[in-house]
Amino acid sequence: MSDIVLELNNLACGYAGHKVVQELSIHLRAGDIGCLLGPSGCGKTTTLRSIAGFEPVSAGEIRLDGQVLSSPTHNVPPEQRRIGMVFQDYALFPHLTVAQNIAFGINKHPERQRIVGELLELVKLGKLGQRYPHELSGGQQQRVALARALAPEPRLLLLDEPFSNLDGELRRRLSGEVRDILKARGTSAMLVTHDQSEAFAVCDQVGVLREGRLQQWDTPYNLYHEPATPFVASFIGQGYFIRGQLLTPDTVQTELGVIRGNRAYQLPTGSAVDVLLRPDDIVGQEGSSLTATITGKLFLGASTLYRLQLATGSVLEAIFPSHDDHSLGEVLGIRVSADHLVIFSAQGSVNVSAQLPLEQVLASGVSV
């Protein structure tokens, strides 16, 4: 059997004659948890419903374990796809007990009771099998929905915004538990969410969608540190772009000084570029000639996020340990400490202050 469990090849799909998703190609390895991430209306749920068999495919194909499930001329019915689904609203049967809900899809299985018992323990509801859904909390209901979807041992599990009805702390805890459960069973899954922290906490691979087109399919680490497009760079995490000029393949002149990157960039020398700086790229340095004024402050517990304004008017963000406390209006000495320098070609003229002649910059060897 192939290591690839799910393949979407040049997929186009939509509803009511409206094409929502176009030219979407991704693959998911067996045992991995994938995610479709993006703003509302970008095609995440439409893609998930097409994988489940609820929406038609107008171009391309969907394969599970190498078998074509959907194409413009072929469609395997949803009940024959070996795919489970966990819905946003749980969709539990109110007149059935927890155990009966879990057993719903395996009522004819000779080992039904054993499977239900194992799943109740797996989702930490071992003593609640005889309760009804209305007697459970939202997190417990979600666990029941997950156990019910896992009972038939699907080849792929689909999760459509499964934690959106839960409050913040419960959402964070349950998303981690769901990942542990899926990994313990070796179940391949595809999650849909607009919450990037949730996607990063649960998933091995994440696809960022914009207006129905895939921007990047990659690991959470690479999406944050190696975004493929300006949209991914701005959508994932926090940060600001500043304008610069490429001096050498790995060196950029900016209003923060000369910044040296960690690779050679494939742009002509002298190109106008936009440089992405994350909050963790900006660090404090007492006595630095480069200063910024604190114009915003967000206390996060273990850390504090500061909004900084440079003398030029440009805005940055920096995250400091919470015990390193500063006040609004305070002027800080800062420097750039970026292990991964993300650069994109910019349109328009270069707009950097205190720009040095190219020969002088190269001779000085100065870096920030």
Automatic annotation (TrEMBL):
The keyword Chaperone does not apply. Residues 6-236 form the ABC transporter domain. Keywords: ATP-binding, Cell membrane, Ion transport, Iron, Iron transport, Membrane, Nucleotide-binding, Transport. Signal peptide: none annotated. One of its GO terms (biological process) is quaternary ammonium group transport. One of its GO terms (cellular component) is ATP-binding cassette (ABC) transporter complex. InterPro entries: AAA+_ATPase, ABC_SmlMolc_Importer, ABC_transporter-like_ATP-bd, ABC_transporter-like_CS, ABC_transpr_FbpC, Mo/tungstate-bd_C_term_dom, P-loop_NTPase, Transp-assoc_OB_typ2. GO terms for molecular function: ABC-type ferric iron transporter activity; ATP binding; ATP hydrolysis activity. This is Iron(III) transport system ATP-binding protein. It comes from Halopseudomonas bauzanensis.
